[in-house]
Amino acid sequence: MSDDTITELEPILQEAEDWLQLMEDDGQDAGPWSLNDGVPAYTADLELLGNLLRVPLRANASTQSGRLAKAFDAWLAHELRRAGFHHDEVWPRKTQPRVLTRELAEVLRQLAVLQSVVEEAEAASAAKTEKENQRLAARHQREVQKAERDAAREAKKALPGTPVPPVVHPPFKPKPVPRAVPTAVARAIGAVHKAVPSISASNILGRFYVKQVDVAVSAWDRGPDVLISGKTMFSSFGKNTKNRYEETLGEATNLRDRHPLAAMGYAFVVSEEIFKEKGAYARLQDLLLRTRKPDGPYDATMLLIVRWDASADTVELTSPMTHPMVRHQHPPVDLGANRFFGDLLGAVIENTPVGVHQQVREARNGASPGGAPDPGADAADVANAKEQDDGESVSDSP
Fold first, then answer.
1. Residues 6 or more apart in contact with residue 203 via CB below 8 angstroms
2. How far apart are CA 174 and CA 140, in angstroms?
3. How confident is the model at residue 374 (pLDDT cuts 50, 70, 90)?
4. pLDDT score recorded for residue 383
5. Distances (CA, A) of 178 to 126, 166, 171
6. How many alpha carbons lie under 13 Å from residue 126 in its C-beta half-sphere?
7. CA 51, CA 338: separation in Å to the nearest integer?
8. Per the record, where are the segments of Pro residues compositional bias (predicted)?
């Protein structure tokens, strides 16, 4: 699927992130977490989701176009970055390539710096050569003019009828611009840049097959920690909800069997037109409740209902707890965004060691008493201890 859909949403996402940065710079807590009777509670930015969905809705984009789905994916990824995950560990990334490990992203940034240094050096060399050529051209012009004046004086001295040879002066040849950086070095930099993978989809290996996951958090050394399947449904509700059961369970089994500790989420955005097809909403709600833990494979499930008013250019998002067609259910069904991210991030914290995802942990639970452990330092200590053990083993050998 084309990357252009996310590209058209970048200004909206950047505005949201600029606002968060401004709040942080002013010393205000713009994070998603707050305490509700001492219990951490997540607040998702549904206004941003509405702004993102408005772009394809204004264009009358169908579900099949993929534009609605990409808007939803971009929002899910934004919420994960907002929760504290490193921006390069969340896929799709904010910029191209959409899928790239944090370590390779740093390689790309350093390559960009190196390329900038090369370009500045070449520009400086070109400017210096241009200045030198201007000086030499001016001197050449003066020499030509002097030669012409000398020839004119000689012509006056010559006898009448004596032929005067024309003034011949070699044309000015500017100096070529020397390479500030050897060609081989410049080519090597370009080759490394091209060798970095440029991927637009998160292809995750499951137990049975490779699955394109809509939103993920993954690292070079750990593999995936978060896997989210995001779905949008704005038509053919009855047919689609029937097909979802088999698809959902197969997808969940494929990924869960290979990544048992990854936090997995299943998220839906549907048009409120779903209520017009008998049984469609009930079937979808049942699916999301049954596939959520403790009985299902997903750590978190979400269902958001969209009301799009084209004449007023407004997008209203509600959950089953607040939509007038659903909220009177007993018991009330909480499939909202706040619970979804609360459950999902709780699973991440529970399933990873305390030294991993510190920003996520501190945003939710506060700073660790006495400071957080450093996995990098721990790994270095283990490596040093092994080197010492290996050294002792060699020295003790006969």
1. 99, 210, 211, 212, 213
2. 10
3. confident
4. 62
5. 8, 36, 21
6. 6
7. 18
8. 162-175
DSSP state of 274: G
Which pLDDT value is given to residue 224?
94
| Adjacency order of strands within the sheet including 215-219 | 90-91, 215-219, 223-233, 263-271, 300-309, 314-318
Mean pLDDT on 322-344: 91
pLDDT for 3 beyond 60: no
The DSSP 8-state label assigned to residue 177 in this structure reads P
Place of tokens 């020397």: 178
CA angle 315, 316, 319 (to 5 degrees): 140
Distance, in Å, from the CA atom of 264 to the CA atom of 76, rounded to the nearest integer, reads 13
Query: What separation in angstroms does the CA of 235 have from each of 47, 59, 232, 278?
Result: 23, 16, 9, 13
Residues 6 or more apart from 388 whose CB is under 8 A from it?
A: none
Q: Nearest-CA neighbor of 199 among 112, 104, 100? A: 100
Phi-psi label, residue 366: left if phi above 0, alpha if psi -120 to 50, beta otherwise: left
Q: Please, what is the Cα angle at 270 between 61 and 86, to 5 degrees? A: 85
Distance CA 5, CA 152 (A): 73
* pLDDT bucket at 370, cuts 50 / 70 / 90: confident
Tell me the three state secondary structure of residue 22.
Answer: helix
Q: Is 303 exposed, middle or buried (0-12, 13-18, 19+ CB in 10 A)?
A: buried
The answer to whether residue 204 scores a pLDDT higher than 50 is yes
Confidence at residue 395, expressed as pLDDT on a 0 to 100 scale:
58
Q: Residue 78: name the closest of 17, 29, 31, 22 by CA.
A: 17
pLDDT on residue 1: 39
Whether the predicted pLDDT of 386 surpasses 70: no
